[in-house]
Amino acid sequence: MAIDEKLRAILSDVLSLEAERVEEFDAETGLFGHLPELDSMAVATLFTEMEDRLDIIIEDEDVDGEMLETYGGLLAFTEAKCIGA
Fold first, then answer.
1. d(CA 81, CA 39)
2. Per residue in 28-63, pLDDT tens?
3. Rounded to whole angstroms, how far apart are CA atoms 70 and 73?
């Protein structure tokens, strides 16, 4: 399964969003501050699921507002982590 597909599944599961809605996300789709489901508690759960399902480690210093601003930013971050893992 491609990283994009896995990330969409994680977002759908963690945020309890319909899969069809998450499938419509593009690079410019706003996440943190745009999706009411993605609050600070959900971010922690999201990162934990990403680590578990993608076999990556997300360090505190890796996290910044930009990576969570859009789906494209989160996908780019995730792909870089998976390649570097």
1. 22
2. 999 999 999 999 999 999 999 999 999 999 999 999
3. 5
pTM over 0.85: yes
The confidence score (pLDDT) of residue 73 equals 97
CA distance 34 to 29: 9
For residues 23 and 48, give the distance between their C-alpha atoms in angstroms, rounded to a whole number: 21
**Cα-flanking dihedrals φ and ψ of residue 7, to 5°?**
-65, -40
- CA 38 to CA 68: how far, in whole Å? 10
Euclidean distance between CA atoms 25 and 42, whole angstroms: 18
